[in-house]
């Protein structure tokens, strides 16, 4: 039995806007993705017996065909015309329903692991096509680092690496349904859109954390109304964050901090009020 273990990093959205809707109902996005050091660990094995088996060390994770990792394995096997089976184990560290791409990054990790196990059985184009079919965030996780994305997430442009050594991410007990969040987005009238294009240009010119922070923003903050999110954002700002922004469709919040001591002190305070709080950094 051949196995590959991959680190599956979470992401934050430094900027996230919804700019329209396609005829098929998919929402059109403009966003800047950033991979961060909080990560799941995904182990994938090829076995002789056909079928897919998925296990996870977190009871709340569905270990069935609803899981993106399961779907990724199934679609890879079908595209590669492989009759072998796949075993997947996920060590879960990314909070669920947090807007950090936990399910998507696991799916991308499965695709990349199967590529390695099968000695690149699929072309890059086919692998990317499978990723797009799995969800808007999955293509980014094949790329990683810092990237601008448009369309439904499939139009990706790598950006110069954004180095933020002092990040804090926190999440309360509540989660956010992505479908429900988009329904709230659709109901907004004349919302204030975050300056995603300005953010993109600043990153292209190598701007630092203090310059990037005022440009970070998320349209979903106008649509998702959770007291926990508001309290976390307030706490971060009161404890020295350059900015405090919800990521994805929620409910996690990230803050950019000027130095390690400030980040650690803010995180210590957040651990008293939030179910999850961790100091981390950007990765490429």
Q: What features would you describe in this structure?
A:
The chain is of the alpha+beta class. It folds into two domains: 2-158, Ribosomal Protein S5, domain 2 (2-Layer Sandwich), CATH 3.30.230.10; 167-280, GHMP kinase, C-terminal domain (Alpha-Beta Plaits, 2-Layer Sandwich), CATH 3.30.70.890. Helices cover 32% and strands 29% of the residues. The strands form two sheets. Strands 1, 2, 3, 4, 5, 6 and 8 form a seven-stranded mixed β-sheet that branches. A four-stranded antiparallel β-sheet has the order 9-10-7-11, with helices on one face. The mean pLDDT is 95.
Secondary structure tally, helices = 9
What is the rounded distance between the termini? 31 Å
Rg on CA atoms, Å: 19 Å
**Overall number of structural domains:** 2
In quaternary terms, these chains amount to single chain
Proportion of residues in extended strands: 25-35%
The major sheet is characterized as: 7 strands, mixed
Kindly report the average pLDDT value. Answer: 95
Annotated CATH topology of the largest domain? Ribosomal Protein S5, domain 2
Number of DSSP strand runs: 11
> Which bin fits the share of residues in helices?
25-40%
**Looking at the structure, what is the overall shape?**
globular
Stretches with pLDDT under 50, minimum 5 residues:
none
Report the top-level CATH class of the largest domain.
Alpha Beta
CATH architecture verdict of the largest domain: 2-Layer Sandwich
Order of helices and strands: EEEHEHHHEEEHHHEHEEHE
Overall SS class: alpha+beta
């Amino acid at each position: 039995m051949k196995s590959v273990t991959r680190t599956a990093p979470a992401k934050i959205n430094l900027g996230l806007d919804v700019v329209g809707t396609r005829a098929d109902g998919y929402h059109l996005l403009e966003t800047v993705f950033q991979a961060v050091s909080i990560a799941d660990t995904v182990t994938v094995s090829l076995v002789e017996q056909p079928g897919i088996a998925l296990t996870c060390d977190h009871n709340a994770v569905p270990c069935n065909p609803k899981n993106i990792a399961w779907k990724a394995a199934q679609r890879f096997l079908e595209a590669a015309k492989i009759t072998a089976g796949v075993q997947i184990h996920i060590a879960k560290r990314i909070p669920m329903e947090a807007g950090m791409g936990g399910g998507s990054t696991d799916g991308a990790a499965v695709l990349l692991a199967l590529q390695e196990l099968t000695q690149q059985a699929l072309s890059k184009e086919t692998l990317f096509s499978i990723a797009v079919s799995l969800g808007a965030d999955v293509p980014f996780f094949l790329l990683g680092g810092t990237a601008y994305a448009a369309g439904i997430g499939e139009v990706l442009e790598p950006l110069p690496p954004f180095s933020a050594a002092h990040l804090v991410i926190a999440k309360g007990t509540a989660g956010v349904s992505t479908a429900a969040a988009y329904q709230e987005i659709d109901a907004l009238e004349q919302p204030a859109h975050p300056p995603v294009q300005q953010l993109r240009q600043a990153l292209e010119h190598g701007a630092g954390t203090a310059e990037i922070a005022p440009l970070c923003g998320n349209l979903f903050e106008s649509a998702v109304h959770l007291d926990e999110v508001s309290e976390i954002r307030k706490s971060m700002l009161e404890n020295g964050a350059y900015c405090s922004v919800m990521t994805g469709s929620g409910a996690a919040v990230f803050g950019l901090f000027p130095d390690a001591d400030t980040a650690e002190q803010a995180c210590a305070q957040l651990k008293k009020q939030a179910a999850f709080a961790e100091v981390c950094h950007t990765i490429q």
